[in-house]
Design goal:
eight-stranded antiparallel beta sheet; 5 helices
Length: 342
């Protein structure tokens, strides 16, 4: 029987060790990939971060303004689908309306206070010191109360946040519960943004105002006024400036982002308050579903109302951040599918 030399034994041991080491590494990589597959939602200080396959999708920000907002919003192919200003100065972006924070909700006059504008907006605009002081005193806040749900999964992510609308005098006016549901398609990021408003602190008057509603500020390169191919189209066939103030079931805003045609479409659910909503959509990039301004923008009767104590109403919208133009993304079909959801 031939003896095995010490060198041969060592090589066998090393071969076995290498096999088990590689196996361990492969298993570890697979476990890490499995952990990162799909959506995650993580608390980050006062905020919440949404990722997909380990990559940033958006952050729900509660501690930087007088209202919560989403920023950045990363769409298909890593495209940044909303304006960065005022959170970040980016060369080539418009630096107007610092209260336009990516994706947000605001009311210009609710209980006598304004949660649409911000102090910086008022301070930068023209007007007497007395007028600015009066407007600053009229500013309110949408104050984040808590996250009641932060949940990720293979197919979706969910954020449920509760907010209080508070006047500058500290008086609580009403509350909302907002549910944000994220899903990912091959060529699109989809956000369902559902809000239920509750008059839990007594009667709350809501005035008919132009600057109110659920909003997205599109990238500067996408807006119509940049003249790079940006276009607004609604479900009724109105385009660009003619889409302003019109009622529609959906509106699509498309144009170039990093040289590629991209789009943001907002769909208004049939169960949403005053569906089909009027749209405060501007060629410079503001994109707002405003069911509150029926006189201010839709040129109908005054839409002011009082939300009675204990009563509620709901806004429901789906935002599609997509590749291609309106036709390529088949937004009419997308609205048809969305409209059937109860």
């Amino acid at each position: 029987m031939k003896a095995v030399g010490s060198g041969a034994v060592f090589r066998r041991i090393m071969k076995t060790f290498t096999f088990f080491l590689l196996s361990f590494v492969l298993i570890s990589v697979r476990l890490v990939c499995a952990a990162e597959a799909g959506f995650t939602v993580e608390k980050k200080g006062a905020n919440a971060v949404v990722k997909y396959d380990g990559e940033l999708v958006t952050e729900y920000v509660t501690d930087q303004a007088n209202k919560p907002f989403l920023w950045p919003v990363i769409g298909p192919g890593g495209a940044k689908m909303t304006r960065a200003y005022p959170m970040k100065d980016v060369d080539g972006e418009r630096k107007d309306h610092p209260h336009h924070r990516s994706v947000w909700f605001g009311l210009q006059n609710m209980g006598g206070f304004d949660t649409w504008h911000e102090a910086r907006t008022i301070e930068e605009r023209k007007g007497s010191a007395e007028l600015k002081k009066k407007r600053l005193a009229g500013l309110g806040s949408t104050v984040h109360r808590e996250f009641s749900k932060l949940e990720g999964g293979k197919d979706s992510a969910v954020i449920v946040a509760i907010n209080d609308y508070v006047g500058s005098n500290g008086k609580k006016l009403m509350s909302d519960v907002r549910t944000l549901t994220f899903t990912m398609g091959e060529d699109r990021l989809v956000l369902d943004f559902d809000m239920v408003f509750n008059a839990e602190y007594g009667d709350c008057p809501v005035k008919d105002m132009k600057d109110s509603g659920f909003c997205v500020r599109v990238p500067t390169s996408m807006d119509v006024d940049s003249k790079k191919g940006g276009k607004i189209l609604n479900s009724e066939g109105h385009t660009d400036k003619s889409a302003w103030g019109k009622r529609a079931t959906w509106v699509s805003y498309t144009g170039p982002v990093n040289g590629k045609t991209m789009g943001v479409a907002i769909l208004n659910h049939p169960a949403s308050f005053r569906h089909p909503t009027p749209w405060h959509v501007r060629t410079y990039g503001l994109f707002t579903a405003n069911p509150f301004g029926t006189k201010s923008i839709a040129r109908e009767k005054d839409g002011s109302f009082i939300l009675k104590s204990g009563k509620s109403f709901a806004l429901r919208h789906r935002v599609i951040f997509h590749e291609g133009n309106t036709e390529e993304a088949n937004i009419p079909k997308a609205w048809g599918e969305y409209s059937k959801i109860k």
